[in-house]
Amino acid sequence: MANLQDIGLSAAINILSALAFLVAFAILRLQPVNDRVYFPKWYLKGIRGSPTRSGTFVKQFVNLDFQTYLRFLNWMPAALKMPEPELIDHAGLDSTAFIRIYLLGLKIFVPITSLALVVLVPVNWTGKTLETIQNVTFSDIDKLSISNVPSGSDRFWAHLVMAYVFTFWTFFVLYNEYKIMANMRLKFLAYENRRPDQFTVLVRNVPPDTDESVSEHVEHFFCVNHPDNYLTHQVVYNANELASLVERKKSLQNWLTYYQNKYERNSSKRPTTKSGPWGLWGNKVDAIDYYSSEIEKLSKEEEVERQRVISDPNAIVPAAFVSFKGRWGAAVCAQTQQSRNPTIWLTEWAPEPRDVYWPNLAVPYFALTIRRLLMAVALFFLTFFFMIPIAFVQSLANIEGIERVLPFLKPLIEKPTVKSLVQGFLPGIALKIFLILLPTILMLMSKIEGYTSLSSLERRSAGKYHLFIFVNVFLGSIITGTALQQLKTFLKEAPTEFPKTVGVSIPMKATFFITYIMVDGWAGIAAEVLRLVPLIIFHLKNSFLVKTDKDREQAMDPGCLTFATSEPRIQLYFLLGFVYCVITPILLPFIIVFFAFAYLVFRHQIINVYDQKYESGATFWPDVHRRLIIGMIISQLLLMGLMSTKNAENSTPLLIVLPILTIWFHIFCKGRFESAFVKFPLEEAMVKDTLEKATEPNLNLKAYLQDAYVHPVFKGGDLYKHLVIDEEESSPLVPTKRKSDRGSKLNSGRNSDVDQ
Amino acid sequence: MANLQDIGLSAAINILSALAFLVAFAILRLQPVNDRVYFPKWYLKGIRGSPTRSGTFVKQFVNLDFQTYLRFLNWMPAALKMPEPELIDHAGLDSTAFIRIYLLGLKIFVPITSLALVVLVPVNWTGKTLETIQNVTFSDIDKLSISNVPSGSDRFWAHLVMAYVFTFWTFFVLYNEYKIMANMRLKFLAYENRRPDQFTVLVRNVPPDTDESVSEHVEHFFCVNHPDNYLTHQVVYNANELASLVERKKSLQNWLTYYQNKYERNSSKRPTTKSGPWGLWGNKVDAIDYYSSEIEKLSKEEEVERQRVISDPNAIVPAAFVSFKGRWGAAVCAQTQQSRNPTIWLTEWAPEPRDVYWPNLAVPYFALTIRRLLMAVALFFLTFFFMIPIAFVQSLANIEGIERVLPFLKPLIEKPTVKSLVQGFLPGIALKIFLILLPTILMLMSKIEGYTSLSSLERRSAGKYHLFIFVNVFLGSIITGTALQQLKTFLKEAPTEFPKTVGVSIPMKATFFITYIMVDGWAGIAAEVLRLVPLIIFHLKNSFLVKTDKDREQAMDPGCLTFATSEPRIQLYFLLGFVYCVITPILLPFIIVFFAFAYLVFRHQIINVYDQKYESGATFWPDVHRRLIIGMIISQLLLMGLMSTKNAENSTPLLIVLPILTIWFHIFCKGRFESAFVKFPLEEAMVKDTLEKATEPNLNLKAYLQDAYVHPVFKGGDLYKHLVIDEEESSPLVPTKRKSDRGSKLNSGRNSDVDQ
């Protein structure tokens, strides 16, 4: 077991690597050539222009103002400077709510840590159990943990009381945070400008009608059942085929640009390519001609498909976006049942136009239930049996296997150095690839489940990932062994035994988790701010594909907060905090450092880098809250298990109260706040409608809503622009002259608010 | 263990006692003097008049037409004669849906039984395992059960396949039944006449306002937020105190009548009573004078309280019944969230006026969550620890305890015969009293939980009773021992072990359950039809309290279907059926007899006897469905446990599919049908509104709704009458001249449709 020196060494290494990342970041971000990697958000907002137009040639690429290097950490205070309301305006409520999860971690754990260090550490340290046992090696960390308290000691009262104090403190913080979040969301929805989704309801499972088209049927139904409120509707085209054609054309276009650039730089030789798949096989052809003709062919195909989709009645899916004369009408329609058959005419709030996941709009009810059953079973197998196919791949991917499949590599990999490298590397690589692919797999599963908006897809994937992390990282590290073995243990042991088995191992795993927090948390977050992959990709694209400013705009990859993967990871830190706050409080400072550092970094990122794909108004908060509650309950059960092995069984009746209280607290909060995230109160809707009627009596809402929900392929990039402009015209962050074509009319010259 | 002879004997005894009850019933019901006990429903409907006015004196009390005795079983076909639509008209949808549960039992188990007897009984009988074991006593029943199949035999395939067949058959029946039920409910709601609750929404947790009264606040809020739909509203008075005064007055009135009658019969002596509590202590006073003056006193008090309630603003609770101009408006308001704070302005469909549980209308949200937490904990303790206080009472209630408390009884109970009787009787009596009180206790708990309608209270109590029966009757009989011991077993054993422990004991308990079914099911149902307790009470009341026809009307106790206790008991029979259909199929015929007999009896009872207190439109069906699903899952898990002890572990993967499918089926049905029972589709509402507007353009809805939701004490008995008349005037069952005063204008002479 690691002692304090080992931990210190590990901490030093991780802090140094984190620092190295930060220094690299500090230097790289000051180079004008990297400006679009580290400040893409400002470019997209149109506030920051390309720095390549001003100054000398060198200055365009390298920052020679050495004074700025001295202030290389000044992004940290700058990240904190922007006040929250402005942050919501600038980055959206989703991002702001997301970084508040880190802040929530600080709010919960800073007071708990202080108290635990003051009360529990002395109680544990003077327990002196471990010193009396001679033949067991123990680390200094363990002396600070509950293991150092003798069995059946009265000292456990301290832990018991602290468990209560910590629980109630967490309740207090969580309740307040939920309240703040609900108010923030309602305020956000109330003060935001007119948006199409406020007036619109997504109707699915429109029943087929022999006499009427989908469009007529929808119109008649809503004219009859919402006569005073119905305004207009838009049918949904099944444009998935068309979308894939557009996608392919875009990729060909990139290749064409690449070869054109190549030819421009070296005009002595026309570039060539091969006509087979991936340009690897087939006849050698002139690249520029080949791609030009391919694009032309595809354009024709696209046009045919576009006509087919618009004219063919079978291309209309039985779903529609129905718009109402006011928010009240939409709120009513979204919250009520329309037909006596509850599986047709399903209505729900329309997601933002950007947030719609188009391919899923047409899944019928029965297929949905079947898909969800299958995915639930699949998730179970994925979580508990994922090691089986990986072990199979690993058994294939050894030296002999490679030699059999690719005999020509034999001389190379028979070399001792290469051989040992391959043997050491290969078994791990299958697992690594699986873990990298996992979020994609989970997202695919959520898509199969048939959710209709990107935000709900992300939320569902996060739930799946949370389960996976809990079983395979948390439990997997504590009871070493695969998830499958844990499942067996779980099924074979009594329900009261399982918390004991896990609880007993918890204090011993503290050092492991401290190291984990430093590697995954500290260094991982520092790597996040450096953005190494987008940096490389941007420069590659910039060299090969960029011709105009617009191309450069598209070459930027601002990225976004990936809720589906990040949030479950944060939940792991919360879980570790809850579990160890009573057992090994010395772990808490490491978690606090993680939360504080991550808060800083992500606040900087959402200000300067990330560009969210949609805005859901923090709809994910109930999920966050629920998972925190799950973490608390798990920690309480494990504490109970641990205590009962310490001859402190009398504490069980007192400890069982905690999970019951926690469940009750959850139900209470759910009833109190959740509806703010799923429903829209009529009172609000009425207030906004009345206000709008008074201020804009001549508003032509029908024209405003006419094209709001059109599949993006029918609009090109116009859809997004339309929205962004609309929002900014009414509340511009800074004065901007940009009206329609974002790329060409950028404000030149660097803006003064670089670091905000 | 019992063999076939024992079972036969037990069956004979139970069949004989059931027959005795039936014969007694057949004779008693033909006596005109019992007419109001066995046909109260028809009196309440006003179709049947008192038989005492016609014929000779003797004929008024005893039926001398001996021909009718020969046809003593002819109530059975008569009970089946009334077609279902007419039954719904006559007895209401609640009652009709309730007896369909028995019919559902027949639909599920008749085909299953035939198949099981044809396939599984031969498979088990020829298993010949039990015959080879010499030193184990076994019964003939066991030879027909799965115990007779050798471990690890291929014969288990038959059981496995049958488990699948039975499950899918049950799915099929359940799905159809849910569909029929949902349609029946929607049709019932659609075709029923105008009722106040169609236009009305119950609003609770009206926030306090310093400037406005509750009434003004409600009016303003709904005028603003439902401007086109709001019609009127009624505030709710806290009239609990007044109601208890009225109740006391009624009881005094009864005593007064009793003494008046006594005096009339024997006018030589004025009756006396004692003025202390229960007329047992205190001064001797003239009874008629005493009660007259008491009633006068109470009437004054009542008048004062009535004035106080009406004038005191504090007597108005923060709840109101808000009525709308149409069903559409009410449907919208009931299904949407009103305020941004989801714990105020809570709206839900108003229950029928008769169905409102007035004392619970004013419970605030926070108190509700606390109460529900406490009741959940209380239910847990009640279910698992109820034996502790009973054992305590039993330990007190022995001979010595009685002698200590009531020493004067010593000479009596020291007698050997009395002593043995007391010793044998006393321990059981505490348990018996508890079991009789249990439904009341559970109902009290539901009331504390704060539900606002009688129907929801009944549904909640049924849920609690179901848990109690499952743990204490089903599990308690299988693993003999108290629930507390079961809880310990459950916690100490692995989750896979518990089904094994229970599963292994199941085949051995078949004979016990067969006896249970005969005693509780067969004989119990036969006793139900006899109505011994209401018979005695009616004759007591008739002799002492009845003066006028109206009094006699009130002396009738038609009773009603007690959903809260009957439904969980039926569920036990379903559970037994599901569990034993694969294991000991010979138990099934006994269940079928129960279902068929109970169906007959209850159909007769709802036609001729019961008078439901409210009509909820079969809102309970989702609960029935859910508990059937729970029963199926339990049976599947137990079968899995049993199979794995029979060296047939390979079947586990196949059997685990069943509960997963069942859960999926439940989710599917819930999504497909449940909303028919909790929501009201706007389409329906709009159709009815439009129709009404066309047929009755001059309807004064406001006047119609004005007094619909007034606390019953403000109306006396008028409230119920009002409703009944309204329903019948529009669709009278048979022509009746009764218009307003039910008691005085009864049709005299017996009607011809007695037995329908």
Q: Which percent range fits the helix content of chain A?
A: 55-70%
Q: Calculate the mean pLDDT score of chain A and round it.
A: 78
Number of H- or I-type helical stretches of chain A: 33
Oligomer: homodimer
Strand content of chain A: under 5%
Low-confidence stretches of chain A: 717-756
The helix-and-strand class of chain A reads mainly alpha
According to DSSP, the number of beta strands of chain A is 6
- End-to-end Cα distance of chain A, whole Å, is 45 Å
Greatest chain-chain contact = A-B, 48 and 48 residues
The main sheet of chain A orders its strands as: 2-5-1-6
Domain tally of chain A: 3
- Rg of chain A from C-alpha positions? 29 Å
Shape of chain A: globular
Mind describing the biggest β-sheet of chain A?
Answer: 4 strands, antiparallel
Keywords (chains A, B): Calcium, Ion channel, Ion transport, Membrane, Transmembrane, Transmembrane helix, Transport
GO molecular function (chains A, B): calcium-activated cation channel activity
Protein name (chains A, B): CSC1-like protein At4g02900
Family (chains A, B): Belongs to the CSC1 (TC 1.A.17) family.
Record keyword descriptors for this entry.
homodimer; about 750 residues; mainly alpha; 3 domains; two-stranded antiparallel ribbon; 6 strands; about 65% helix; globular; disordered C terminus; calcium-activated cation channel activity (chains A, B); transport (chains A, B)
Verbal overview:
Two copies of one chain form a homodimer. The first copy, chain A, is mostly helical and 756 residues long. Chain A folds into three domains: 4-194 and 471-679, no CATH class; 196-351 and 680-710, no CATH class; 365-449, no CATH class. Chain A has 33 helices and six strands. Chain A has helices at residues 4-30, 35-38, 40-45, 66-70, 75-81, 84-91, 93-125, 129-132, 140-143, 156-191, 196-199, 214-225, 240-265, 287-311, 327-335, 365-385, 387-396, 399-405, 410-413, 416-448, 454-478, 483-492, 497-505, 510-530, 532-544, 549-555, 563-583, 588-608, 621-645, 652-678, 682-695, 701-705, 718-730; strands spanning 200-204, 230-237, 272-274, 284-286, 316-324, 346-349. A four-stranded antiparallel β-sheet of chain A has the order 2-5-1-6. A two-stranded antiparallel sheet of chain A has the order 3-4. In chain A, helix 15 (327-335) runs antiparallel to helix 31. Chain A is globular and about 85 Å long. Mean pLDDT of chain A is 78; it is low at 717-756. Chains A and B meet through helix 12, helix 15, helix 16, helix 22 and helix 30 of A and helix 13, helix 16, helix 17, helix 23 and helix 31 of B.
